[in-house]
Amino acid sequence: MSEFEKTDPSKFLSDIIGSSVIVKLQNGINYTGNLQTIDGYMNVVLDNAKECSNGKVVRDYGDVFIRGNNVLYISEA
Amino acid sequence: MSFFGFDPTAPPAGRNNNKKEVYEFQETYEGLDEADDAFNDETFGTSTGEIRKDFDFGAGAGAGAGASAPPAAAPATASTGSVSQGVSYAQAAAPTDDEFMQDLWGTNTPIKHEQPIASGERKILSLEEIEAQLTAIDPSAQPPQQQQQQPQGQFMQPYMMPPPQFGYMMPPPPGAYMPPPPPPQAYGQMPGWMPPPPMGVPPQPPVGQPVPQQSQPQPIPNTAGSVQPAEESQVQEGAPETAVDNSVVSSSPPKKVDLSHFPVLGSKEAHDAHHQPHRQHQQQQQQQQQQQHQQQHQHNHIAPLQSQVHPPQHTLTPEEQERAARRQEKVSRIMKYSGIMNPKDKDFVTRFQLSQIVTEDPYNEDFYAQVYKVIHPKNDNVQPMGSTNNSIAQAYLEQSGHRLGGRYKRADVALQRMQQQVQKAVTVAKERPKLTQYAKEGALGKISFGTGKKPRQQLEIISKAAERERAGEVKQDKEITSYSKKDILNILEGIITELMNVESETRALHDIDTSKLWDSLKVLEHASCSGDPEPEVNPFIQCLNYNKMLKILPRLFKFLNREQILTITTLIMSNLENLAVIKHGSYTTYANKRVPENIAHLVDSYSMTFSKVLMNAVLDFKFNEIIGLLVILIEHNNVSFVSTTKIGLSILTTLLSRAELIIGEGTISATDLSEWSSCYDELFTSLESRIAAIFPPHPEDVDDGSSRENYVWQFLATLSLGGKLSHQRIIVDEVRDEIFGVMARAKDIDPADVANLYKKQNLLNNLNMYLVVMGLVADENEIKELQS
Amino acid sequence: MSTKEEPLDLIRFHLDEFVLIKLRGAREIKGKLQGYDSHCNMVLSEAEEYIYNDSNDDVETKKTEMVFVRGDSVILISPI
Questions:
Q1: Which among B494, B581, B599 has a CA at the least distance from the CA of B541?
Q2: Cβ contact (<8 Å) for C5 and B548?
Q3: Which of A24, A65, A72 to substitute to test the interface with C, most C CBs within 10 Å?
Q4: Any domain includes B765
Q5: Which of 3.10.20.30, 2.30.30.100, 3.40.50.700, 1.10.10.10 is the CATH number of A3-76?
Q6: What total of structural domains would you count in chain B?
Q7: Under a CB-based contact definition with an 8 Å cutoff, are residues B740 and B687 in contact?
């Protein structure tokens, strides 16, 4: 997306659906995977998700639902 | 005296209830500066200054003072306050009408000092009574309630015209014109909740609750008070504005009470009255804090106090005192918070709660409650359970703990009213559009707020799919040929949803549209046959790998017509090996020759659901359809593999046995028969030389001698039944070892082992089910020809 | 008609299926999902709870026939 275009959070979030993202939780753990869906509560579903703690992949998930209240940020990977 | 709803006919007990609150009311009031009450003028039609002068709670000797006295008297708690209360009351009353006072007081209170409280308490109760009164307005209200009101109005009337302080004292909508009371105040309406009623004339009761009374009062002089049954009078006692006309009361003393037993208010106490207002003011805080404490000790204090106050007359026995005190304590504990909410508040809360629980679809949203209702039908349901509304209201009332104790009449009315209210709320809630996210966009961004069912969202995110959908460019034509597990689960949930929709429709309508349900099955969406890669298998077939699909199969098939069922069965026959129970259900694919536990579990589920559904479905099929199904099965699947699975074998058995039954009916044409025999030959050929493989290699695993292995023998019996002699020979040849194996196992079971004897019998029964077809019978030692 | 997917769908799809739930307080629960709501309150049957202690070695395990999990402690949910 063009950086100069005015982007609000919901637009950003709906634009990155389908792409590979990093979701950082408030407890410091990162999840990377394909963003399948996201809703207004920041609930997120990733597929092919990897759980990374301290830079190491700790676990693989096929699909994973992350409850929105735990999400610190979501960024495009 | 009784301006505040003091009802001489009422039993004394009820009176005690609100003593505390009355007291608080009074005190609160005292503490506030009326000069600042901007609405005073508006409310009472007098300047605040005037009003002030008129208020002499304790000492006032005028007629007006007498009337206003009761509330003033209220402040004291049972122990300390009672003295002063009584005094002020008495003093006010004494000059006016001593006799009357005696009657009144004697009647009302067994324990003397509680009287003032009682009168004050009226008020509090009255608030609660408002509800009842409102109910009375209701056309449906019960007659007794209406009767009650008449006396009230009647009593009140004389007071309609008194000086401003009367209007001021009017209890019912107190919050409206009173300065914001402290929380505990009984009548405490939320400050600012209602604007002060615009009133030009002081005596006029405030708008709102009191209205009913006003409209009703038809003075029925003396009779009313005395005639009323106790119950009613009790209700009345609680009524908000019940005002008792002194003269009326005095002229018609309550009949029930024997005055001689009760103390008469002494004039002595009157002296204390002067101090009361000030004291109250000072002590307000303190007393409030002490209330609890005092209550606890009331019991102890009562006796001495009583004797102090009314030495000569007092004749209460200790038991009576104790009982009264205990009751009083209990009541005051209960009443501590009574009146915090007025009926309107309660209405509001009730409606709000109801709006959250009301649902259009009780079956889906409250499934277990529905089930519970079916399992435990209410036998005491007097009310016809006509509508859902009704039942919701009923349930609510049953659960709401609405207090019925002692005041049946009132409670009944209240219940009725509640029920109507609930019904109304339900109706309104149903009419209201579905709960959605409420959102308001403003300068600071989007604000949204949630409800119980839909929590607050932080952002509204529109997915691309939804956008596309909105833009109308849904790509339906693009054939999906591969399904992820998620797709399948999605479809499955869709089926369940549709099924539930259809089921709930059937409860309401007779004519139901099942086309959406059929579409959701996606039977025709993507053709596939055995051996296709799993993601490309027809979604319906894939759904059959999930337990939840199996669970709904029987319910599902109820809504499918014969053609649809035939279509599904055909699809299944061509995809047998795509079913997990077949694909993974053969011992032959496992090194240890055992089917893994999770598959075995699924197999069990199939036996419970799928096999039964199929059995029923096959009953409807015609002969050539059965042949067609078998042909498809043979064409698309490796029959010998299928036969090594329990489900595969039982499907074969089902089809074969149905065909045999139809043949047995003897109405089959020669062409059909020849078609059948060629079909059978084909089947047999694919099985030949592998028949023994249908026996699981670990019979002791699957067959403890109970009937778990009988599906194999059933199949053999059916197969032999349809075959010619040559077929039967081949079969016997191939399973000879199994036959003798079973006989050996049967023989191994010690006849003395009674606990396991049934196993021996089962083994032989299974075996004989097959052997009988060929005219043989076996025991554990030998096979004989059937005697017959 | 169900084109619009939302995250909670993943949970819905796994009704009657086994899921793994990661909870606050270093806990996990595996169980068959019997029900859930929008707060991620969940009911699991045949559940097994794993409590991890600081030393990652010892894991406490609890089995429960049926358990209600309050949504606010849920971190993530994943099908097994």
A1: B581
A2: no
A3: A65
A4: yes
A5: 2.30.30.100
A6: 2
A7: no
Are B666 and B725 contained in the same domain? no
CB B187 within 8 A of CB B23: no
B459, B460, B463: best to mutate for the A interface, most A CBs within 10 A: B459
Residues 6+ apart with CB under 8 A from B396: B354, B418, B422
| Nearest chain A CA: its distance from B486 CA (Å) | 9
Residue ranges covered by each domain of chain A:
3-76
Residues B680, B732: one domain? no
Residue C24 near residue C39 (C-beta atoms within 8 A): no
The structure tokens 């059909």 sit at B672
- Chains near B (3 or more Cβ pairs under 8 Å): A, C
* Tokens 């067609």 -> residue: B628
Which conformational region is residue C46 in: left (phi greater than 0), alpha (psi within -120 to 50 degrees), or beta? Answer: left
Same structural domain, B643 and B710: no
CB contact (8 A) between residue B490 and residue C13 = yes
Q: What angle do CA B335, B116, B192 make, to 5 degrees?
A: 55
- State the Cα–Cα distance between residues B214 and B218, nearest whole angstrom: 9
| B737 in a structural domain | yes
Say yes or no for a CB contact (<8 Å) between B461 and A63.
no
Count, in order, helices (H) and strands (E) of chain C: 1, 5
Do the bridges between strand C18-23 and strand B783-785 make them parallel or antiparallel, or are there none, so unpaired? Answer: unpaired
CA distances from B175 to B130, B344, B348 (A): 13, 12, 17
Domain boundary among B639, B664, B687: B687
- Residue B253, classed as helix, strand or coil, is coil
Q: What is the pLDDT of residues A40-68, one digit of tens each?
A: 888 999 999 999 988 889 899 989 999 99
Can you give the pTM of this predicted structure?
A: 0.54
C2 domain-assigned: no
- Write down the pLDDT at residue A68: 92
Specify the residue for token string 């979701």.
A23
Distance from CA of B433 to the nearest CA of A (A): 21
Is C9 touching A (CB cutoff 8 A)? yes
User: Is residue B372 domain-resident?
Assistant: no
Task: Please say which residue of B687, B720, B754 terminates a domain.
Answer: B687
Only one residue has tokens 């009031």, namely: B29
User: Which pLDDT score is estimated for B90?
Assistant: 42
Nearest CB neighbour to C10, from listed A25, A31, A63: A63
- Condensed to tens digits (0 to 9), the pLDDT of residues B489-500 reads 989 999 998 898
Is residue B714 domain-shared with residue B614, that is, in the same domain? no
Largest Cα–Cα distance in chain C? 49
Residue B208's SS3 state is: coil
Considering the domain architecture, whether residues B619 and B644 belong to the same structural domain is answered as yes
Reduced to 3 states (helix: H, G, I; strand: E, B; else coil), residue A66 is strand
Among A37, A44, A67, the residue with its CB nearest the CB of C40 is A67
* Residue owning tokens 């597990």: B485
Name all chains with 3 or more CB-CB pairs below 8 Å to chain A.
B, C
**Does B700 map to a domain?**
yes
Chains with at least 3 CB pairs less than 8 angstroms from chain C: A, B
Q: Is residue C37 part of a domain?
A: yes
Structurally, chain C folds into a number of domains equal to 1
Name every residue whose Cβ is closer than 8 Å to that of residue C57 and which is 6 or more positions away in sequence: none
The secondary structure of residue A49, as a DSSP letter, is E
Token pair for B188: 């405490």
Q: Give the separation between CA C46 and CA B648, rounded to whole angstroms.
A: 29
Distance CA B145, CA B214 (A): 15
Q: Which residues pair with A73 in a beta bridge?
A: A24
Using one digit for the tens of pLDDT, what is the confidence trace for C16-74?
999 999 999 989 999 999 999 989 999 999 999 999 887 667 888 999 999 999 999 99
Alpha carbons within 13 A on the beta-carbon side of B22:
39
Q: Which residues of C touch A65 (CB under 8 A)?
A: 7-8, 10-11, 76-78
